[in-house]
Amino acid sequence: ELVLYTGYLSTPEQVDDILELIDDYRHQIHAVVVDPVCGDGGKPYVSENLIHSFDRLLKIADVATPNRTELALVQGLSVENDVLSLIDAFVKRYPSIALITTGVLWEREIGNYLTVGNHTEVLRHSMEVDRLLSGTGDLFAALFIYYRYLQGMKAHDAVKRAGDRIVDLIANDRDRSHRPEELQFDLNSAVS
Q1: φ and ψ at 165, to 5 degrees?
Q2: What is the pLDDT of residues 147-171, one digit of tens each?
Q3: Residues 6+ apart with CB under 8 A from 111
Q4: How far apart are the C-alpha atoms of 142 and 152, rounded to whole Å?
Q5: Global confidence as pTM
Q6: Which of 93, 95, 104, 52 is nearest to 74 (CA)?
Q7: C-alpha angle 123-109-128 in degrees, rounded to nearest 5
């Protein structure tokens, strides 16, 4: 059984290709995890056509892992809306998806919202967030898939464990000398 994960896409045609692949191999695909990578920090960084195309992927997804900006953009809503209202609207639009809203910042915490059906829970991690890091959403999704589907953890436990690992990797990376917006780590240490 396969888990199909979509991350960054650059054209709506890629959505067509992925949907065709899913249709051809659906009997072998255990889960479809969609990260609708399209923006961050309140701003989109892909075309509006691509943002609208994510709707077709989300309709067949089992899990979605948008950040707050992406959660608003894929629904055509303002990024100024509070995250819980964005989650409510998403669940009404895509009721069968397990939604993990990633990288939500609070004053001294970072965390994720996990929404399954009508139940939403917050999984917070205490840490000083002193810089924005590229790619942590992708790493979170990969770790979630590893813990949920390869290790067989329940969704709550997989989200918690993946978030804990991200926090650990960021904390252990603080003293390294490289570009500050990049996180460097050994892949084996990420899943241990």
Answers
A1: -65, -40
A2: 999 999 999 999 999 988 888 877 7
A3: 104, 122, 123, 124, 125, 163
A4: 14
A5: 0.86
A6: 52
A7: 140
